[in-house]
Amino acid sequence: MKVGAVHAIRALRTSLFVTPVSQRPRTPIRWLCLRAFSYLGEVESRSLDGERLDQLCRAMELGIFLNRCFDGKRPFSSGRYRELRRPLDGRSTREYLRRLKSLEASQPASQNWKAVFQYRRDVLEISLRYLFNLSGIRQRDVLLPICSMVQLVDDVLDQKTDRKLGLPTFVTADGPSASQLARMFWQELRTGREPEEMPFVASGWLVYLLARFTILCFKA
């Protein structure tokens, strides 16, 4: 346990000086995501170079672009799609696109809470699996509850638009309250973690507080 904690601290310190990327993350969330993968690479003694981090950054941009297109929040642009798609690893990206299209083609009705919850988590899971495949490091489930809380915040902020569009989200479906979901994701994050995963529990606590604050302010 002690050795694992010391190694985690060293990896965390090293990951704070991530190799610069040519494709700058456009939001703090994407920047933190790159830091997370850089840290996990250091934990496994596999530092991610600038090219690998560029791939992750472009993959995140591609996922966000496609999700907004599928949700009808922006028109599809073949030029923008090709720009984002071209530099990415072919095999991993094809598998990601195949699974994402399959999920989006069978979006559940917003009244079916269990199906909506599974759909939201499946989209997050295949997106994370894609990023792990591109990074070349072992997949861990510690990022899923954090991403779920981030998605919950986004759903709370977009709830009016999502309801107008009839989109199935964590807060438009007839299920547990947003506060209950936030607590559930937080509990999932903090349970049964390895020493090297504790930095995610610490940062996840801040995400949980952000989620509770957002839910309170927007009365979700």
Describe this structure in words.
This protein has one domain. Helix content is 70%, strand content 0%. The protein contains ten helices and no strands. The termini are far apart.
Give a short summary of the structure:
The protein is mainly alpha-helical. It has helices spanning 2-15, 28-43, 50-70, 78-85, 90-105, 113-135, 143-157, 159-165, 178-190, 198-218.
- End-to-end gap: 40 Å
- Report on the biggest sheet: none
Q: Can you write the helix and strand succession as a string? A: HHHHHHHHHH
**Beta-strand content:** under 5%
Please compute the radius of gyration using only Cα atoms. 18 Å
Give the domain tally.
1
Alpha-beta classification: mainly alpha
Poorly predicted runs are 1-17
Count every helix, treating DSSP H or I runs of 4 or more residues as helices. 10
How would you state the average pLDDT, rounded?
A: 88
Number of strands: 0
Helical fraction: over 70%
Q: Which term fits the overall shape?
A: globular
Key words describing this protein structure:
single chain; 220 residues; mainly alpha; 10 helices
Helix and strand topology:
Blueprint (H helix, E strand, L loop, with lengths): L1 H14 L12 H16 L6 H21 L7 H8 L4 H16 L7 H23 L7 H15 L1 H7 L12 H13 L7 H21 L2
Helix pairs in contact: 1-2, 3-6, 5-6, 6-7, 7-9, 7-10, 9-10
